[in-house]
Amino acid sequence: MGKILIDDIVPIIVIMALGYVCGKFSYFDDDQRQGLNKLVLNIALPAALFISIVKATREMLAQDVVLTVLGFVGIIVMFMLSYYLCRLMFHRSIQEAAVCALIAGSPTIGFLGFAVLDPIYGDTVSTNLVIAIISIVVNAVTIPIGMYLINVGQAKDRARLSAATVANSKGDVKVASASAKTPAIVATKDDEAVDPKKDATKDRNAEVMVSKSSNKGKKKNQNLEALINALKQPVCWAPLLAIVIVLVGIRIPDAAAPTFDLIAKANSGVAVLAAGLALSTVKFSLGWETIWNTFYRLILTPAAFLGVGLLCGMGSNVNKLSMLVLAVALPPAFSGIIISSRYNIYVKEGASTTAVSTVVFAVTCLLWIWLVPLCCH
User: Fold this and answer.
1) Of 68, 147, 224, 286, which sits 20 to 30 A from 17 (CA to CA)?
2) pLDDT at 172
């Protein structure tokens, strides 16, 4: 365990602290910081996701049906539960809750999976299988879902920012403002918005919107547009392409791996540095939301997998169940904080959650290594 802390956890903390210091001393300006985020999100991360997924095979996925189904269903359920709880408990917007789910609901399996599991359980077929399954669902399923929800939320926010009620007896004529200084919009249960402080009729950027009934007819088109926009992002289509290649049975030649690995190696280091830079731009928060996200990521999620795994009869194979629990008990996926920083969404809570969870993982890791065998006997 000491080797894991020294070789894996400490470097993350040090590099994140380096990014924080660089941000505080303005070593990188905003354009350079966004450039780093873009490098990771559009190039390095897609390459890392692609090459990590195509190493799996159909035979690996079919080797243990219970493990595969539990991995796929469990990660997606916990991801969506994180999203809905964030909306319910902290009243976050759609895109904020989506980024929260990408962070609190997704483990950093690609970065720490092999580094943590191999020293403890050995470089075995079972270890590779667990990492491959969790990696596929985190990278090829939850990231596209998160990006889709972000696009949906942004589309709705644009509609709200462009909508204000013109004094009219029927109340179905909308006027929108595109001003960057528009005061906070108050959303209603019907997804309408009213800006009580601004007279939209005097706004030079105001546009007359269609009626309420017409807006309803366009919601499906907006969702489709959000899905298309999400799928255009390399961080979405690269892992999806990889999973298609795996399911079809196409094998990428081993000679091609170094080509992807060279740029993929930049992903982890730059992503952690960028997380520190993001943290430097906001006031560090150790509020209830950060504490809840950390608890959800490191305690609640692995506890749920442990309980369901025992119910599904995985208790007879302690090592495999322990590997699964520890794989989903890893700190937040760094892709989440990169997406957060890139789109300037949920940055304060996301960066704080990532920092706190990474430090606390040193304790919870030992907890799950000790607790899983105890529950199986």
Assistant:
1) 147
2) 53
Distances (CA, A) of 61 to 64, 189, 229, 256: 7, 43, 30, 23
CA atoms 90, 91, 95, 97: torsion sign: positive
In 3D space, the residue among 86, 98, 82 whose CA is nearest the CA of residue 143 turns out to be: 98
pLDDT given at position 4: 61
Contact 365, 310 (CB under 8 A): no
Q: How far is CA 349 from CA 45, 286, 337, 353, in A?
A: 22, 8, 10, 6
Q: In 3-state terms, what secondary structure has residue 354?
A: helix
316 secondary structure, DSSP code: G
Return d(Cα 290, Cα 288) in angstroms, integer.
6
Other CB atoms within a 10 A radius of the CB of residue 220 amount to 9
Helix/strand/coil percentages in the chain, nearest 5:
75, 5, 20
Extract the tokens encoding 281.
């731009």
- Model pLDDT, residue 221: 67
Asked if residues 194 and 182 have their Cβ atoms less than 8 Å apart, the reply is no
pTM attached to this predicted model: 0.73
Q: What are 181-220's pLDDT values in tens digits?
A: 444 434 433 333 333 334 433 333 333 333 333 444 455 5
Q: 292-317: per-residue pLDDT in tens?
A: 999 999 999 999 999 999 999 998 88
User: If we measure between CA atoms, which residue out of 359, 273, 310 comes closest to residue 70?
Assistant: 310
Model confidence at 77: pLDDT above 80 = yes
Q: Are strands 174-176 and 186-187 parallel, antiparallel or unpaired?
A: unpaired
Cα distance between residue 6 and residue 8, in whole Å: 6
Helices (H), 249-346: 257-280, 288-295, 301-311, 318-328, 334-343
Beta strands in the chain (DSSP E): 164-165, 174-176, 186-187, 193-194, 207-208
Identify the DSSP state of 333: P
